[in-house]
Automatic annotation (TrEMBL):
Binding site for Mg(2+): D23, S52
HAMAP family in the cross-refs: GGGP_HepGP_synthase
Protein name per UniProt: Geranylgeranylglyceryl phosphate synthase
Reaction(s) the record says it catalyses: sn-glycerol 1-phosphate + (2E,6E,10E)-geranylgeranyl diphosphate = sn-3-O-(geranylgeranyl)glycerol 1-phosphate + diphosphate
Source organism (scientific name): Paucihalobacter ruber
Pfam families (UniProt xref): PcrB
Length: 253
């Protein structure tokens, strides 16, 4: 089943989705078996692969290794055309609609067409909004765009809705890697109330409480990267509930 179709089916059924973001600049192929073991024991439903830098990366070799070792859908989350690879299931075809840099609104996408023309990748148009989080992020530095103010919620809502009306299949609110503050509940709730397409939230979520809070106000998909890179114990907070664990809780309350 196509990634987007499956994703929509899961969301309609009431499932909240969790994506683990793997940054090629921070992950070695040799580290994958241990990292993916933790991912598979968790409630994670998807893997995103990509970073903010525009340098040639290890994306291709990592994608091959992930596909060989994981059953989870692998979706490219590229920072540049150089990060495109055919060894994935789908691609978030991002347009940075929160900024006015034409390079990231349309020019990078045009440059990608020659690589995508004969590709089997499922291409998912995605409206990408960078939201102020309290610190300068790599996305801001690389794209040369300013994040949207957390205080101007109506503008964030209108921008997200404009993305949907332009035909974007997903809307992604990004606080940035290692954000000081995640996207606020007020922003998530306001944006979700206007959208008919799935809402992705990423950046700054470092605990299960923050994860649950994002879901409770409307996030359909939450993306976590830095928190797992810095603290593998976080995976223990989001382990799958299995029949054996339920039995253990009943016997040992």
């Amino acid at each position: 089943m196509l990634v987007l179709k499956s994703l929509l089916k899961q969301i309609i059924s009431g499932q909240k989705l969790l994506t683990v973001l793997i940054d090629p600049d921070k992950m070695e192929v040799e580290q994958l078996p241990t990292f993916l073991h933790h991912v598979h024991q968790s409630v994670a439903t998807h893997i995103f692969l990509g970073g903010s830098t525009d340098e040639a990366s290890k994306t291709d070799s990592l994608a091959k290794a992930i596909k060989a070792q994981s059953h989870l859908p692998l979706v490219l989350f590229p920072g540049d055309v150089s990060q495109l690879t055919s060894h994935a299931d789908a691609l978030l075809f991002l347009s940075l609609i929160s900024g006015d840099n034409a390079e990231y609104l349309i020019k990078k996408q045009v440059a990608a067409v020659s690589k995508l023309r004969d590709s089997q990748l499922e291409v998912i148009p995605t409206g990408y909004l960078l939201i102020e989080n309290g610190k300068i992020t790599t996305v801001e530095r690389v794209t040369g765009t300013k994040p949207m103010s957390r205080k101007n919620i109506q503008l964030i809502v209108d921008t997200a809705k404009a993305g949907e009306l332009l035909g974007m299949k997903l809307i992604y609110l990004e606080a940035g890697s290692g954000a000081a503050h995640p996207i606020s509940a007020e922003i998530i709730k306001a944006v979700k109330s206007e959208l008919k397409v799935p809402l992705i939230i990423g950046g700054g979520i470092k605990s299960k409480a923050q994860l649950d809070a994002a879901y409770s106000v409307g996030a359909d998909i939450v993306v976590i990267g830095t928190a797992f890179e810095e603290n593998l114990k976080f995976f223990n907070e989001i382990k799958k509930v299995t029949s054996s664990s339920i039995t253990h809780e009943i016997i040992n309350p």
